[in-house]
Amino acid sequence: MNTTKVLYNIYFKRRQKSIRKYSKYTESIQRKVLRRLIEKAQDTQWGKEHAYGDIKSYEDYAACVGVNTYEELKGYIQMMREGKKDILWPGQVRWFAKSSGTTNDKSKFIPVSYDGLKKIHYAGPRDCLYFYFSINPKSRLFSGKSLILGGSHSPNMNTAGSLVGDLSAILIENAPKPVNLTRIPKKEIALLSDFEEKRDKIARAAVAANITNISGVPSWMLSVLNRVLEISGEKTLDKVWPNLEVFFHGGVAFTPYRDQYKSIIRSQNMHYMETYNASEGFFGIQNDLTDPAMMLMIDYQVFYEFCPMDNLDTNGYPVDPAKIVPLWEVETGVNYAMLISTSCGLWRYLIGDTVKFTRKDPYKFVITGRTKHFINAFGEELIVDNAEKGIQQACIATGALVKDYTAAPIFMDANAKCRHQWMIEFAKQPASVDEFAQILDRSLQAINSDYEAKRHKDITLQPLEIITAKAGLFDEWLKGKGKLGGQHKIPRLSNSRQYIEELIALNKQ
Q1: Which of 282, 110, 220 is nearest to 479 (CA)?
Q2: Between 20 and 30 A from 176 (CA), which of 50, 60, 274, 497?
Q3: How far apart are CA 167 and CA 152, in angstroms?
Q4: Neighbours of 221 (CB within 10 A)
Q5: What average pLDDT does this structure show over 100-118?
Q6: Cα–Cα distance for residue pair 317/371, rounded to 1 Å
Q7: Is the backbone of residue 437 left (phi > 0), alpha (psi -120 to 50) or beta?
Q8: DSSP label at 248?
């Protein structure tokens, strides 16, 4: 009996029964999760300050606890980092994930409790395997090695009472021994902080191995895979790793990278499976490879709430708390900001991501962007999901491939005209950048009626402008901020011109 069948008989049959309850018992499952979180945290400093002992229902919880961003929790987290116990979660929390959700200089330290590791962060990968083996029961994934790309520790940010690292580094450090025996690279390479050195060492360690599966952020994994091809002298990975069958990816949208992966992985047996995992938790898994939406994992130690995007102010904070709804009251097709309460001590925490539900039986969703990564300078309400789809259409029409991009508004130029300005680094240049820009502009109008209205007859917005970035510009920009590699991301859209002005200046050097 192969390993897949053994796991199926031991774990997956039981898990299948739990997943089947997602559709019918959503509300009771989520209320149970919240009740257990409240009960366990009632004797913490936070629990006492917010009368957790008196909370009997979700409605009580929403009345007793306000919405929180990192700023509201920062003081409590600092006490935890100093080694104090029973602050946001029972006991002492030793690990803190250095958040890299933005490229801001300010660091965020997200607590990662033992309960959170076990019941959230490690629960997700187990369910990834469950869903994948359900989709591909003939998988030979365990016949070879896993190439897992992660971040690094940050020893300079450690304190006497805590350890700091990228979430992926924390997961590697605390992973069960069997996991580290089957993964590449070895831990000492995986935790290197210099991404360029790490990329080369990972590629050299992996090139001769029997890699059957890869996991990581698409942008950084692509960089490693291209280095593998350089070292091997092959044109496609099928020649290097003939048994490669699946890429578990997350962190950034896969759309801009899909064609680049297809160009270097030609196998018809290759699968791509999206996950929604962040420093704050593991939330969703793609359970149907024909459907880009992910299933929300509702029985981990995470309680979900959602705030309609039209209820957020310019700083991304809810205007009317009464409009925040629990999972069982969401509607499909509405753009929501997501709030979480977890066993890592995050309470009604506004994570900063936006999602849209595509169905409720079970609850499936797509990530649409970030609460602060959008352009709404002229009422156009352009979100990252719009941008990804527009770029995809332009790439299909012109045969181009986009490596990275960012966009921001020009509020008024020398001729008193307003427009969107895009900085795009192409992996494969279109024959005409002007044609690419026109197709992107038309696609955005077709996708977003607000953008279309502002573009009408060029009255409010002029046609968008594209600046072609030199090769490696975005990596150079991130490197200059000490954020090359790991889980660091390019801010795709911004109402501010800070990012794009920095890139324009660097592009001229």
Answers
A1: 220
A2: 274
A3: 8
A4: 21
A5: 74
A6: 9
A7: alpha
A8: E
- The three-state secondary structure class of 266 is coil
Give 53's DSSP letter: G
Three-state SS across 69-117? CHHHHHHHHHHHHCCCCCCCCCCCCCEEEEECCCCCCCCEEEEECHHHH
**Spatial CB neighbours of 320, under 8 Å, sequence gap ≥ 6:** 311
| pLDDT range class, residue 105, cuts 50, 70, 90 | very low
User: Among 136, 487, 128, 146, which Cα is nearest to 294's?
Assistant: 128
Amino acid residing at 307: C
Among the listed residues 495, 262, 488, 480, the one whose alpha carbon sits nearest the alpha carbon of residue 373: 495
Q: How far apart are the first and last CA of the chain?
A: 60
Which residue is listed with tokens 């895009």?
422
* 98, 109 Cβ separation under 8 angstroms: yes
Residue 494 tokens read as: 């911004």
Q: How many CB atoms lie within 10 A of CB 431?
A: 10
Q: What is the largest CA-CA distance in the chain?
A: 73
DSSP annotation of 463 reads P
The DSSP letter of residue 469 is P
Query: What are the tens digits of pLDDT across the range 298-346?
Result: 999 999 999 998 898 867 789 999 999 999 999 999 999 999 999 999 9
pLDDT in tens, 401-446: 999 999 999 987 656 578 999 999 999 999 999 999 999 999 999 9
Distance of alpha carbon 447 from alpha carbon 459, whole angstroms: 19
What CA–CA distance (Å, rounded) separates 264 from 238? 8
Cis peptide before 185 (omega within 30 of 0): yes
